[in-house]
Amino acid sequence: SQQGEEDPQALSIQEGENATMNCSYKTSINNLQWYRQNSGRGLVHLILIRSNEREKHSGRLRVTLDTSKKSSSLLITASRAADTASYFCAVLPIYNQGGKLIFGQGTELSVKP
Amino acid sequence: ETGVTQSPTHLIKTRGQQVTLRCSSQSGHNTVSWYQQALGQGPQFIFQYYREEENGRGNFPPRFSGLQFPNYSSELNVNALELDDSALYLCASSWAGASGDSPLHFGNGTRLTVT
What we know:
Strand content of chain B: over 45%
Largest interface: A-B, 29 and 34 residues
Distance between the termini of chain A: 36 Å
Structural class of chain B: mainly beta
Helix content of chain B: under 10%
Distance between the termini of chain B: 38 Å
Oligomer: heterodimer
Order of helices and strands of chain A: EEEEEEEEEEE
Number of helices of chain B: 0
Shape of chain B: globular
Order of helices and strands of chain B: EEEEEEEEEEE
Helix content of chain A: under 10%
């Protein structure tokens, strides 16, 4: 079963706008990661935030983590058409069974030029 | 540095047949994981190999099996294929260091269709 739940399932914005995606999970975690997937391709790692961190930045990406609410958000600022992709959160549970990353269902982001 | 490569890119098989998918890890990585991704879904963990041994498995039946070779390349074998096995199969490599939280590097997957 997948523990990560992303919200919204789909998001359509104009170029230059910000995009916010949310992720909720059920277990205690070691870390939470965000990945991006272009249609029919493999996933690309974007950012990792550990359970003792609350916020992390990487370029136009900002990730927050609230372990008390078991939730995370990914903010993409000043979006570009090239950001169009599916975005997945994935959690590494504390019990860490063989490095099993549990992925959510993903948010499909469409950025219109 | 070479990335993760998977072969073949596409495959069509008949129900009941067997299939072998191959993966070459990114250089310097010692761990390989396999994921199944159905259309419109997130990837589901199948299993992970470290030092040629399976060290974690998801909720997949024994007809899903794997191998990791000394050069860290890997195979995923699926026996007695079922229609529901149709999916994108993703291989991901990583470095299992002391922190145990290195990110995964994915290949572009093998699209398996079972008819």
